[in-house]
Amino acid sequence: MKRRTALKLATALAAMSIAGASFAEGTITFGAVGPKTGPLAGGAVVTHFPNIQLWKEEVNARGGLNVGGEMMMIEVIEYDDQTNPAETIKAVTRLATQDNADFILAPYSTGLNLAAAPIFDRLGYPQITSTATTDQAEALHAQFDNIFFTLGTNSDIVGDAVKILSDLRDAGEIGNRIAMVNVADAFGIELAAAAKPAFLAAGFELVYETSYPLGTPDLSPIMKAAKAAEPDAFVAWSYPPDTFGLTEQAIIEELDVKVFYTAVATAFPAFGDRFGAAAEGIMGIGGVNTASPEFQDYAARHLEVTGQAPDYWASGMMYATLQIYEQAIEATGTLDREVITQYIKDNAFETVMGTIDFDENNNNNEFWTVGQWQDGEFKGLASTGREGAVEPILKSGWE
Amino acid sequence: MDIIITGLLLSGTYALIAMGLNLQYGVARIMNLANGEMLVVGGFAAFILFTGGGVSPLLTLFLVAPVAFFLNWLIYRIMLRPLVNRAKSRGALEQDAILTTFGLSFVMVGLMIWGFGGDYFNYSFLSRPIVIFGDNFGLNRVVAFVCAVALCAALYLWLNHSRAGMAIRAVAVSPESARLVGIDVPKLSARAFALGGAVTAVGGVIISTFLTLDASIGVLFTMKALIIVIMGGVGDVRGTIIAALILGVGETLVATFIDPGLTLAAAYAMFILILLFRPQGLFGRRPT
Known about the structure:
The complex is a heterodimer of chains A (399) and B (288). Residues 15-24 of chain A have low confidence and may be disordered. In chain A, α4 packs parallel to α5 (110-123) and α13 (314-332) crosses α14. Chain A folds into two domains: 26-153 and 292-368, Rossmann fold; 154-290 and 369-383, Response regulator (Rossmann fold), CATH 3.40.50.2300. Chain A has helices spanning 2-23, 41-47, 49-61, 85-97, 110-123, 137-143, 154-170, 186-201, 220-228, 240-253, 269-275, 293-306, 314-332, 337-346; strands at residues 27-34, 65-67, 70-80, 103-104, 127-128, 147-148, 177-183, 205-212, 233-237, 259-262, 282-285, 348-351, 354-357, 368-374, 377-383. Chain A has 14 helices and 15 strands. In chain A, strands 8-7-9-10-11-14-15 form a seven-stranded mixed β-sheet, sandwiched between helices. In chain A, strands 2-3-1-4 form a four-stranded mixed β-sheet, with helices on both faces. A two-stranded parallel ribbon of chain A has the order 5-6. Chain B has one domain (2-222). Chain B has a two-stranded antiparallel sheet. The model of chain B has no long low-confidence stretch (mean pLDDT 87). Chain B has helices at 2-26, 35-53, 57-86, 90-116, 139-161, 163-173, 175-180, 185-207, 218-232, 237-258, 263-277, and strands at 129-132, 135-138. Chain B is mostly helical and 288 residues long. Chains A and B meet through α2, β8, α9, α10 and α11 of A and α1, β2 and α10 of B.
């Protein structure tokens, strides 16, 4: 009896899904995969998913995308990859083979994007990343023709940070002593490994240097040791929980530095909310041109539709990748992935982050590298060719 | 000196994380893998009340404790009592409980994400320095340590010097014999589980004043709590306190004198050493 009920249910479900598919005519299906749980979920729900919601609502509100004369609505299928690369790959496969997604948005974070690159390539989908930073763009492009990078390279992110500190030192504003720490995770290790020789080559002295595991509950021994080394600048290649933790410990230890730099999450609105006036002068990875009308307009819409503000780094870039899809689909008038991919390679796109024009390695060469909290906003200090950079200020106390 | 104090403060955090699980596992015999999620729920409550209404987390405690008690009592009555009733042996119950509460942890993560989103949350409460013996410490961590000490002392005194506490200990030692002397074992188990949940949620409220949490971070706390409870010996408050102290001070020593990168390794090394030389835990009884 039970088995028969189950069978009936299954039949009903199958019938419904067929009916659902026929309704889906006239829609463009975008697949989205990213961490809704696991260690990176806290970042993805700030940077990744809200942009998809915003874009879908905006496009559908104006009647959909114009594909060769037919207005098509956007449908999004989202999967949680639990911050697990194996799940990302599974979800991408499922989106392509079972959900028949027209396009699949690139996953969240450097690691998950690199893990998914082979499957995007094999299934023939373009992968326009917005939250991956890598120095391997050229090598990856050689291997996977349809992967695009927008957020920049680690070497530029590190290089610009070193340059800002060097300029401040050469101007006599700060001394020579740097304390540098990093989270013992692929991201932190890679950036610290790139930063160390760069700082030394620039003539800095590393007076304290260490790494700590992701999820360390007590960062006070690190901050105590860093303080004891009497640095002029403190640099942390950190991930969100420890970005908050290190900053809090610095306040408690009254760490007296002129430059305080933390990495991922410094650009989150939650960081500014949390530390208020103490955030003033804190530098971090990323930045945007907060004075640009396009960004201001985008930020206002983001807040209105999703109920939260975008971050000051990758949020805008994530939205920009959606604008790239939008412009490519409307310009070509097709959903053919090969045509779209070729169009993206060949053309420049106007986005909330400015013009994005991919080079021969599908790499966007103009991106923000260093930002700083000034007057309640995280403003871009340095970029590789974007407009609107502001002058750095020195950190003065924690009040 | 500052190393000892830093270590002690960290131990307080660890005791808060593990004390509730000790009650749940030791008395109600439920290895609750959703322990960390309950802690995050407590932290969420403190966050919402603090940012929404400016309510001090120290007041939130008194709201969270009864609510969490009731919630955990319901969880026990609805989800776990049937497992207890059908289990043929303690081993079977543990197996079922682990699977069930593992599932529960996903349900709770899902509910929290659905309700509040997966964003990081933290707030600034007493996050200012306090000078002890010439060194700076976070006032919120010191307050958390004081709360942990008060909570542990209250639990210890209650378990060892009250009638209800004695009955609970009797259930922990031997449920079968406890029944023979007229103790209502199912009722007490439910209460112990509820109390453990309340203690964990209260720990979450306190911990949220200085740690950044998010909806899916609970499993990290569950892991730490498991280590501490097993190191200390199941069902003994003293064991949990000592294990928390060993772990807290040990990790701080390693972080200061060797390398902060080795704290996790050091914690697991201590765990393995204790398992090797005292498999029942520091204060545990040998299985008969």
